[in-house]
Amino acid sequence: MSASAGKLRVALVAGEASGDILGAGLMQALRERHPNVEFIGVGGPRMQAQGLVSEFPMERLAVMGLVEVLGRLRELLKRRKDLIRTLIAARPDVFIGIDAPDFTLGVELKLRQAGIRTVHYVSPSVWAWRQKRVLKIKQACDLMLALFPFEAKFYEEHAVPVRFVGHPLANTIPLDADRAAARDQLGLPQHAQVVALLPGSRGGEVGRLGALFLDTAQRLLQQRPGIRFVLPCASPERREQLEQMLQGRELPLQLLDGQSHEALAACDAVLIASGTATLEALLYKRPMVVAYKVAPLTYRILKRLVKSPYVSLPNLLAGRLLAPELIQDAATPEALVQHLLPLLDDGSAQTESFDAIHRALRQDASAQAAEAVLELVEKH
């Protein structure tokens, strides 16, 4: 089927919650431009709400870390093989792999070889490590949709078709978030200092960082007796995990169900795991300290492979060290407190740069991505 002939069939695969959000925005923008569209593939609740019939639960793809993937490798390979067979039979007009590159690029390669146009939405971190993957990307996809300008520059240098679309969150998050309203919504005092703790959304992340962040909070409380803490839980499972970690601790801490954006809007500073949430903290203009720990073997492998001087998006986007990064053994409660205290008094050195980055990323990404996808379909 061709797009101009009427019905448009779009296949999409997302591997985790952030991809589900991006996919849903793109699907909505595609439908606005081409109402007669059908969506197939794999996605979460947001993409399913936009009309996607998911071949299997998206959560089966949500696994990270080099060592951690090994335990699930057989299942992942079988799911990918079955999905490729299903999609080749369905002959979509275009396939869009959303993030999850270790899974989706393999799908894209096989589909492109079968004559199906392919798009990859969200660049893998090829500029940081395993740079030779750009050759595989060149083979696998007809178009890369990049969220950040430094990524588009990298692909242009490697002659890979690319479109910088901006980041959807830069449009949905206001340029000036209302701290007072967020505090009212969460029942937090207006004049207390508030720190948001974001130890990650996955069980493994919370297992490695949860107790560290709570230990840090206890030390901060000793230094600042009136301080308050909020901790958004990504799921009921994460809430249960954190409730167990809180047993025996006396902390003025509020666990939230979801509500990470409300927590960021309400707080004065953030202690945060490296990942997508650091971009959200940047867009809310909240000064942050970034911490991260992975399995020791994963860390030893990554340390040899990573080419980038920074791990967090705010620093990558700024091209300099804006937010302190404490990785692996450097992430101790003492060190985290030492970096957080000055930010509670004055975080403007970070937040002024965050504002400039926010404005640069405000490109109406879902609309830009939809237009790029439809141009590709029409061209072929």
TrEMBL record:
GO terms for cellular component: membrane. It is an enzyme of class 2 (transferase). GO terms for biological process: lipid A biosynthetic process. Its EC number is 2.4.1.182. Pfam families: LpxB. The keyword Glycosyltransferase applies. It catalyses: a lipid X + a UDP-2-N,3-O-bis[(3R)-3-hydroxyacyl]-alpha-D-glucosamine = a lipid A disaccharide + UDP + H(+). Keywords: Glycosyltransferase, Lipid A biosynthesis, Lipid biosynthesis, Lipid metabolism, Transferase. Pathway: Bacterial outer membrane biogenesis; LPS lipid A biosynthesis. Transmembrane segments: none annotated. One of its GO terms (molecular function) is lipid-A-disaccharide synthase activity. The keyword Phosphoprotein does not apply. Condensation of UDP-2,3-diacylglucosamine and 2,3-diacylglucosamine-1-phosphate to form lipid A disaccharide, a precursor of lipid A, a phosphorylated glycolipid that anchors the lipopolysaccharide to the outer membrane of the cell. Belongs to the LpxB family. This is Lipid-A-disaccharide synthase. It comes from Pseudomonas knackmussii (strain DSM 6978 / CCUG 54928 / LMG 23759 / B13). The gene is lpxB.
